[in-house]
Specification:
15 helices; globular; single chain; two-stranded antiparallel sheet; PLipase_C/P1_nuclease_dom_sf
Length: about 425
């Protein structure tokens, strides 16, 4: 699905956010904001930024079970590099100033590609500093940004104090997993046997970005207020995805049988990640292909209805939102995986030697067309179940906007 000559995909979170915003009436979202660099935010809000970072570092240290570590001893921060280091993000990334294309602007032949190294090509156009945009466009564009590398390759940076990766890899795409997944509803027996799966930094990410969003708005840097909100929104949306809310959605019985017969136990376990990743990526490819297609033309589709929801989210504290919004996706994850594998009918994803991510020849479109023709009832069942998850996605998206606009009357302090 990826490869040097493979076009990058439409991005996933932009589609979710665009649909979820359809039911939101918030005048501030359509107000014009000027695109400004991160340096402008640091110039105006430096003291508040340093206070947020101090509390953020304390929380990271407590969560990681490591001694409290600050990312920097500097009393003034003025550059993007200093910003990234202070937030314990990937110091090698660059901030991109872009705009997400709408679905009808995206070439139909663009395949789904989960790889991220900055904005996926074919999905964005430059929008340089000094140009005008709106809050809604910033949210749509940058709700995918945490997948562009900011949470990757962090564990080898020992001074960050994250400790060892509790799951996923130390480097590469999967090294971001502990920041983008949290398993709040896992069976206590499983968490006792595998205690590391209880460790996630998702809540810390959400808190710091909401705190930064409010600070940016307070200092009149509205562009970054919306961009930080989009980052927090990303993690909340991830939480409503079944493969982010449950560690092992695919049926593992066939794997254990093959494991018992394997002559190369270590090699088998090393490749087991392909099995889980194949299912995860096929699910995302299928769901987001469908959303991209139905968003191109006015139509009544369960995915769009679910994302639009009622436009109301209620007033809850963050921990309650995280717990409630992930409950159904976690409970239904195994069913979602079974329905997905049945309707897509791609047997090779069960092969631990096969990597869907590295298969540049794979195209999701023909598989969806074939499923609609040959297995329509199964496809409808899959769409219905996923729609129930997307209802939660729409809810947390609107919750993020409530936080950003301070319309949540509880006035929760995030850091």
């Amino acid at each position: 699905m990826s490869g040097a000559n493979t076009p990058r995909s439409w991005n996933t979170h932009a589609l979710l956010t665009r649909a979820a915003l359809r039911s939101v009436f918030e005048p501030r979202l359509e107000e014009t904001v000027e695109v400004v660099g991160i340096e402008e935010f640091l110039l105006r809000a430096n003291r508040d930024f340093l206070e947020i970072i101090e509390e953020y570092n304390r929380r990271i240290g407590l969560h990681a079970g490591m001694p409290f570590k600050t990312s920097s001893s500097e009393s003034h921060m003025a550059t993007s590099d200093q910003f990234l280091t202070a937030l314990k993000l990937n110091p090698s990334i660059a901030f991109n100033y872009v705009r997400a294309l709408s679905p009808d602007e995206i070439p139909p032949e663009t395949p789904h590609d989960p790889s991220r190294n900055g904005p996926p090509g074919g999905m964005y156009v430059p929008l340089p500093e000094g140009e005008a945009t709106t809050g809604s466009e910033v949210l749509i564009t940058f709700s995918d940004e945490p997948d562009w590398g900011m949470d990757q390759d962090l564990y080898p940076i020992r001074e960050y104090g994250y400790g060892q990766a509790p799951f996923g890899q130390e480097t590469g795409k999967t090294s971001q997993a502990p920041f983008h997944m949290t398993f709040l509803h896992e069976n206590p027996i499983v968490t006792t046997i595998i205690p590391d799966i209880r460790k996630s930094f998702m809540e810390e990410r959400i808190r710091v970005f909401f705190a930064l969003a409010r600070t940016a708005f307070a200092h009149g840097v509205n562009y970054w207020g919306w961009r930080f909100t989009a980052w927090a929104m990303h993690y909340l949306q991830d939480l409503t995805q079944p493969y982010h809310a449950k560690p092992y959605p695919p049926a593992l019985a066939p794997v254990w049988r093959r494991l018992a017969m394997s002559r190369d136990l270590r090699g088998f376990i090393a490749k087991l990640g392909n099995y889980l990743k194949n299912h995860h990526l096929l699910f995302e490819a299928a769901v987001h292909f469908i959303i991209n297609e139905v968003a191109k033309k006015p139509q009544d589709h369960p995915f769009l209805r679910a994302l639009e929801g009622s436009g109301k989210t209620g007033q809850k504290l963050l921990v309650k939102v995280m717990h409630d919004s992930s409950r159904f996706p976690a409970r239904i994850a195994t069913t979602v995986d079974r329905e997905m594998t049945n309707v897509m009918n791609v047997p090779r994803i069960e092969d631990i030697d096969y990597s869907l991510e590295d298969d540049s020849a794979y195209r999701i479109a023909p598989e969806i067309v074939k499923a609609a023709q040959k297995r329509p009832e199964q496809l409808d069942r899959f769409i219905h179940i996923v729609s129930d998850c997307l209802l939660e996605t729409g809810n947390v998206t609107r919750y993020a906007i409530q936080i950003a606009t301070c319309s949540n009357s509880k006035g929760e302090k995030f850091l």
